[in-house]
Amino acid sequence: MVKMKTGVASVLSALIVCQGTSLAAPIGVFDESRVRDVMSAYEVDGLAVAVVIGQETRLVGAWGVDQKGEDFSASSGCGIYSATKFLSSLTYADLVAAGQLDIDRPLSAFLVHAPPAWSDIPFWRLLNHTSGIPMVTNQTVFGELESDPAAGNSEIYDYVRDLPLDYEPGAYSRYRQSGYAVAEMIASKETGLTWTELVDERVLAPAGLEATFHAATSEGARNAELLTSAGGYETTAEDMETLFKALNADVAIDRENWAGLLFNEQYIHDGYGLGTVLVDVAGERTLGHSGGGRANIRYAPDAEVGVFVCTDDRSNNNVHNDLANMLMLETLTGEKAPLPFQFFIAAHKDGPIETLIADYLAEQAETDAPYDLSDVEGRLNALGYSLLSEERYDDAIAIFKLNVEEHPVSANTYDSLAEAYMLSGDKEQAISNYQKSLDLNPGSANAKAMLEKLKRPSSDR
């Protein structure tokens, strides 16, 4: 249930000007005017971008200001959070290629006292979140470990090893940073180096990166041996430009071996590989990871295209993902990409909701519409919650009803509509829609709790 700010008025001037249809031609012109349009539509104060194809820099720069009010530049540090896994995937692939780590071996081969339930889990399941090892970062104990300068991954291991698995290994891919802590611990044991030392040795130094580092290695920071492979790195647009060119030249790592490992079907579950999200774009394989709701790294190994987008504005309306996807599509095809849905919302900011809904439905009927409306459930939901936060209940209900009509088998759309009705005082409709949500998702604790609350006599609430 993400709350979203709406954008500014008409930004149709942000349509992309393409100067060619081949990859050799300059495409996706991204000048100061277009940058400002993107920043306005997404209500972002500043962002950094790097786009590389082969050894050619298509774009590297930064615009606007950071959250401290200082000018953003291509050399400004930008936290990449979970996009750190992009660097980790490179490091693990290099360890595998060097014969220093066999990811097909079971955990019992690495851990002498591994719990029986872990014994047959292959190492690679730690990296694609299919091991079933329970989460630790959302528990009180992790906060205690972070504040303890002597704590490391072994303490995380000691904690989670005594807990039952969340699910049968291989049944699901669910984000579990605990697996990365265990994998890190094993990699350090096998090589005799900390994870940050491994990343420096295998990736950063060979590629010639000078401004990329983990926050835990800063003076006075927490232990640098506590879950550093899953997040915490900082980089710059200039360093990412350098990394992409190094990858394209097979300098930092053998690109074919790395991509072969990551795209190996054995290690993929629901589009998630060994620390990377795998997506086909315009017929090209791409891999990468977003992080912290602020950064995104995407790379097409066969086409030698790298895209990096980063902002330190947490309330950025998904610009880090939308812009990265748009730039990747443009660079691969040489054609202008449809504008993300945020542009549509921004263009309707000052108009009535009824007009927005009517235009949305008209857009869907167009065969050559300028907006990308293929993945809007979350955006409509966020817009609805933005309206709820302003106590515009009728408008919020109208948006949530549209989302229900567009996504009739989504339990979340009914849940949101029910909440809007509840806040507006329409108890009957709230109960009806919470029940529909529960019917679609019988395991919904929220729907069950709200139905119980709404059905109780008012004197008992």
Question: Overview of this structure, please?
Answer:
- It contains 16 helices and 9 strands.
- The N terminus is likely disordered.
- The two termini are 24 Å apart.
- A 6-stranded antiparallel β-sheet has the order 2-1-9-8-7-6, with helices on both faces. The protein has a 3-stranded antiparallel β-sheet with strand order 3-5-4.
- It has 461 residues and is of the alpha+beta class.
- Helix 12 packs antiparallel against helix 13.
- Helices cover 41% and strands 11% of the residues.
- The longest helix has 15 residues.
In short:
This protein is of the alpha+beta class and 461 residues long. The chain contains 16 helices and nine strands.
Secondary structure blueprint with pairings:
Layout: H1 32-42, E1 46-53, E2 56-64, E3 78-81, H2 84-97, H3 140-146, H4 153-160, H5 177-191, H6 195-207, E4 213-214, E5 233-235, H7 237-248, H8 255-262, E6 277-281, E7 284-291, E8 295-300, E9 305-310, H9 319-333, H10 341-347, H11 353-365, H12 377-389, H13 393-406, H14 411-424, H15 427-440, H16 445-455
Antiparallel strand pairs: 1-2, 1-9, 3-5, 4-5, 6-7, 7-8, 8-9
